[in-house]
Amino acid sequence: MLSCRNILTMDDLSADDIVQILDTADSFKEVNERRIKKLPTLRGRTVVNLFLEPSTRTRTSFEIAAKRLSADAINFTASASSTTKGESLRDTAATLSAMACDLVVVRHCYAGAPQMLAGCMDACVVNGGDGMHQHPTQALLDLFTMREKLGRLEGLTVGIVGDIAHSRVAGSLIPALRAVGARPIVVAPPTLLPARPDLLGAEVATSLDDVIGELDVAYMLRVQFERAAHMPIPSNREYAMFYGMNAARLAAARPSMVVMHPGPMNRGVEISAEVADSPRTYVLDQVTSGVAVRMAIMYLLLGGADSGSAA
Amino acid sequence: MAYREKAEVMDAQSIDRALTRIAHEILESNKGADDLALAGILTRGAHVARRLADRIMTIEGTQVPVGSIDISFYRDDVATHLNPEVHRTDIPFAVDGMNVVLVDDVLYTGRTIRAALDALMDYGRPASVQLAVLVDRGHRELPIRADYVGKNVPTARRERVKVAMAEHDGRDAVTIYEQDGEV
Amino acid sequence: MALLLKNGHVIDPVAGVDAICDVLIRDGVIVEVGTDLTMPKGETVDCTQKVIVPGLIDAHTHLREPGREDEETVASGTRAAAHGGFTAVCAMPNTSPICDTASAVRFLEQRAAEQGVVRVHPIGAVTLGQGGETLAEIGDMTAAGAVAFSDDGHAVPTAAMMRNAMDYIKAFDRTLISHAEDTSLSGDGVVNEGAASTMMGLPGWPAAAEEIAVARDIRLAELTGCRLHLAHLSTAGSVALLRDAKRRGLAVTGEVTPHHLFLDETALLGYDTNLKMNPPLRTARDREALVEAVCDGTVDCIATDHAPHARHEKDLEFEVAPFGTVGLETALSLVITHLLRTELVTWADVVQLMAHAPRAAFGLAPVSLAAGYVGDITIIDPEAKVEVTEDWLVGMSHNSAFLGQRLLGKASDVLVGGYFALRNGKVVQ
Description:
The complex is a heterotrimer. Chain A is α/β, with parallel strands linked by helices. Helix content of chain A is about 40%, strand content about 15%. Chain A folds into two domains: about 10-135 and about 290-305, 3-Layer(aba) Sandwich (Rossmann fold), CATH 3.40.50.1370; about 135-285, Rossmann fold (3-Layer(aba) Sandwich). Chain A has 13 helices and nine strands. Chain B is α/β, with parallel strands linked by helices. Chain B has one domain: 3-Layer(aba) Sandwich (Rossmann fold). Chain B is about 25% helix and about 30% strand. Chain B has helices spanning about 10-30, 45-60, 110-120, 165-170; strands at about 5-10, 35-40, 65-70, 100-105, 130-135, 150, 160-165, 175-180. In chain B, the strands form two sheets. In chain B, strands 3-2-4-5-6 form a five-stranded parallel beta sheet. In chain B, strands 1-8-7 form a three-stranded antiparallel beta sheet. In chain B, helix 2 links the parallel strand 2 and strand 3. Chain C has helices at about 75-85, 100-115, 140-145, 160-170, 185, 195-200, 205-225, 235-245, 260, 285-295, 310-315, 330-340, 345-360; strands spanning about 1-10, 15-25, 30-35, 45, 50-55, 55-60, 85-90, 120-125, 150, 175-180, 190, 205, 225-230, 250-255, 300, 375-385, 405-415, 420-425, 425. In chain C, strands 1, 2, 3, 4, 5, 16, 17, 18 and 19 form a nine-stranded mixed beta sheet that branches. In chain C, helix 4 crosses helix 7 (about 205-225).
């Protein structure tokens, strides 16, 4: 049982919760490898994917996770603009509540939307990514992959490289790494750092080459300039030159360093095509972990829920 | 609710003899070790299964494949009971066409065995499924019966039966506990 | 009609009075302030234990009429003002249509005359439609009764336009009220750029965007000689610039809102849209600097920036909810609770901040507790308990940043021209 009813930010999860999720995900990984990838565990429960921002990967991952647990998975996709100009988020929440959903996974382009939902729904709410704020299940599956590939989490030095200021992935990964005793370092040009990087809890570096020798994990963020009004870097070419993971940097790093990326990758920008396909890059393993971790989260949130014993 | 020891019904030696007998019975019923596999129900059932496999090796000279099943995800009470510890199910043999003997330490209501059967079926289609238990304490709630029993131990519902195994608890014993405060 | 206010603590630094005494009003005008006053006939109001001050005025109110009568009207807004102890409000022009012509000004004055519970002073727009491109008819609006000019809600976009506006407005002896914001820096910002934007994952509105605009507007005021009033200052840097401008003798005044004085960015980590303002709540250090600037006289007025919003519009995701909080009904109580009772300011300071300075900033006729002045008077019960709830608010909209707060001190009665607008805590129709 988790200490929380909703997973809106990494702050909702204690260090024990994180370990429990990772350990449980391990068992689900095994299920995803056998022929019958189905468990009766959440039979009869209803999981809604409320995706108000386009996403195929994350939505599919949650959908598969729910279905493999025998839950009924419903996809509710709409653009956020239709919900702010048409049916409001609050009304959508009321509609879903009236249909007696057990768990809602919400992805939204505006930060704070999961908090709004959690405040007006009885269902468990899982944040599937809200604006530039947080993406807790991504951080958890990243931790799972790191633990699986490197055998531990405590003491790992993880460099998170890219558009930190606008990254909800970084928003969750940094506190997640701190919670398990790892050492996060954010690496970005100052134009891609948030106003108060000191509050993030990570060390800050503006040169990737300066820190690459210390990294156990190079976590490359997709550089998302469609969000920014003014280009914060001169060109993709210059970004790749100074902040991209390429074969030369891979060679300069520790032989044990692994490369990760939340996807989808911009080959040639934050990661070269060669590194994207290299055996030291575990992007696909992250995807595999994703289903197992999301199954673990649903199981831990919905199982035992009727016993009334935990918080 | 506090419990106090009422009686030790099996000591290390009687457990040892029972397991040897069960191993012989399994081989007798299945006419040897061909197409035979053991699947222990986590946690202590897995240790019992391994010990049975060792004895079969000693008797028949054949290494029978041993798997372990975690039934957490197949319980009929997931809504009210969340297992604090979930372990990986490991079935290192192809289930199709095998005679699989489910192994557990204590048989009580039968619900654990029902869950284990469902789990096993998700791995393939066995030729047959049999059940071996160290202790049968009665009070079945489902139509489940054991093929091989170490000891029948009649109990009251309010009593508890605990099996200690050296691999897990440092010693071998089967003990009945009753609620404290009872005569 | 004669009215005798007996035994209240009468405070007015301009009239030089701070004593328990009586106030006699006849035909809407104060005739005498003194001890043991009597009158042949009329109504006596016992003001024992109450504080009597010149009528408070809000320099910055948004009445949503015309255009958004679902959020507030002249009637409901002035009722809220009376409930909050105000005898007058200055109404910002960002209505729909914008108040940028003399006829729009006259409409507001007529509405106020028909339905207003307290006085309404119209503020006209600086540019047509507040679009920042063409000057509005300043002269005509002045003749119709506009007391000041502002494009509040928007910044005047270029220095050239602001200079032009100041040059023109000064000829009509009016003040330009500036909403200081460099929008190229503030962009999509919805919270303070700093801890709030970092932790909440929301676009930030940096303090520098306000300070750059404040510096620009002060320099242009100096260049043109136009009176400048800086609206809703929110940062330490802004009040430092104001302090410097005053030191150099420039005709610049400034206001701060109660929400910027008593809240900082940590209050909105829960995504409560009632705390979403423009300019946003800032850091604790900024807040402290604002309080200090109020106490040392750098900031002239406390003004509410009363911004009513429909519930269904505030009940949206944080980034798309409109900016603003209502403030008319809570301002005085907040000032009493957090500044007066903590001995950071005195009653005389409160009178200066909320009655004299706003009128002086816009060149309005002064209101004072002395013979000959109009009977606009606020009577305060300093011990009244206030719990800010939606039921307690009388305005049409209830988007208050202070919901749930318990405060001490409240206006019990308000006289406008000698007539009760608020009596024993209840608004009079």
